Amino acid sequence: MLKLHGIALSNYYNIVKQAMLEKGIAFEEVSAPPSQDMSFLAKSPMGKIPCIETPEGFLSESLAIAEYLEETHPTPSLLPGDAYQRAKTREIIKCAELYLDGPARRLLGHVIFGAPLSQQAHEEVRPALEKGMAALKRMARFDPWVAGSEFSLADIALLHIMGLVLAITKPVYDWDMLEQEPELADWMQRAAAREHSQTVIAAQQKVRDAMAKKS
Questions:
Q1: How many CA atoms lie within 13 A of 21 on its CB side?
Q2: In this predicted structure, what is the pLDDT of residue 113?
Q3: CATH top-level class of 83-213
């Protein structure tokens, strides 16, 4: 059985977890925060989460893991059958990772762990997110799913990346991006309503609630 290492607070952990649930893959969750301990670096070379334990060894990086799952468990598929559309799906995922998650993550320490707010980051992150959102809108179809008519890995990735982005932009900027993006808001409602989306989001919220009680 595959073992998924990480914690439910991580949106990238949740991307992989939902992909496994959508595919009906049996797996065991192993609680493991990011770590620079040598024992964990042997599993995930950058010490990041998630990583998965397979019969052949460990794999890290969420997109690499998702590709492995797609090849080893092709049904149901989370990538289109057409080569061009598969590439477009990956393009959307990378856009969300680099230009939405990337900028928002600069404020993660402040929002989640109470670190001091960097004035430079505060000034730079919102314009970067606006630029990233404009790029995403040029790529996404929302017809009814991000990459077209079929629910795909792009929907899973964007759902959990936007969850992080919204959790950061609301408290820092008092800015609800969904108010300005009705197509995105409608899509998020559809995506979040899926059975496995609800399972993953509920597990993440449970961790957030526990952290809030401790603070």
A1: 16
A2: 86
A3: mainly alpha
Do the domains 2-72 and 83-213 sit in the same CATH topology, yes or no? no
The helix/strand/coil state of 176 is coil
Per-residue pLDDT of the chain (215 residues; tens, 9 = 90+): 999 999 999 999 999 999 999 999 999 999 999 999 999 999 999 999 999 999 999 999 999 999 999 999 999 999 999 999 999 999 999 999 999 999 999 999 999 888 999 999 999 999 999 999 999 999 999 999 999 999 999 999 999 999 999 999 999 999 999 999 999 999 999 999 999 999 999 999 999 888 888 76
Q: Are 76 and 20 in contact (CB under 8 A)?
A: no
| Pure H helices in the chain | 11-23, 38-41, 62-72, 83-96, 102-105, 108-113, 119-139, 153-173, 177-180, 182-193, 195-214
Domain boundaries, the chain: 2-72, 83-213
Give the list of residues 6+ apart from residue 27 with CB closer than 8 angstroms, or none.
1, 2, 3, 4, 20, 52
Q: Quick one: CATH architecture of 2-72?
A: 3-Layer(aba) Sandwich (3.40)
Give me the long-range contacts of 80-83 (CB less than 8 A, separation at least 24).
80/147, 80/148, 80/150, 80/152
* 59's tokens: 């794999």
* Spatial distance between the Cα atoms of 199 and 56, rounded to a whole number of angstroms: 28
Number of residues that this document lists for the chain = 215
Q: Name the maximum alpha-carbon separation found in the chain.
A: 49
